[in-house]
Amino acid sequence: MLETVSALFVDRDRKVLLGLRAVWKRAWPGHWDAIGGRVEPGEALERALIRECREEVGLTPTRYERVLSEAERFPERNGAALHHIYVVSAWEGGPAVNLVDEHDEIRWFSLEEMAALPNLTIPDLITLVRAALEHGLRVGSEPSS
């Protein structure tokens, strides 16, 4: 089964980095989503997370926590998959740059701005970040020690 990893980068201002999925993408075209992609066969989830983030936005996660693993909610439309979502609270590199054609744009959003987006892939992304912040998530772009 296809597996994906996604990163919700949260900065010191509690803003979240999202990518606007390209209109040519099969799943969720033209929607804002976490940064990430497919796990290669035999690849560990954390290694895939780091690779995808480097490839897509030039950031290397150094502190992260998996906050959700869930089957695709719309397999009839998007195909069967297992998605793993991480909240990333520290990283190396930056500023974030859109390095691939998979996103038409990348941008930092406050949680309120995310809630106002009419084209967010799933509202749970906001809930996941809020829960992590409420449970004492330390945010910032410095590497973890």
TrEMBL record:
Pfam families: NUDIX (PF00293). Keywords: Hydrolase. Its cofactor is Mg(2+). Residues 1-131 form the Nudix hydrolase domain. CDD domains: NUDIX_Hydrolase. The keyword Magnesium does not apply. InterPro entries: Nudix_hydrolase, NUDIX_hydrolase-like_dom_sf, NUDIX_hydrolase_dom. It comes from the Bacteria. GO terms for molecular function: hydrolase activity. PANTHER family: GDP-MANNOSE MANNOSYL HYDROLASE, MUTT_NUDIX FAMILY PROTEIN. This is ADP-ribose pyrophosphatase YjhB, NUDIX family. It comes from Bosea thiooxidans. The lineage of its organism: Bacteria, Pseudomonadati, Pseudomonadota, Alphaproteobacteria, Hyphomicrobiales.
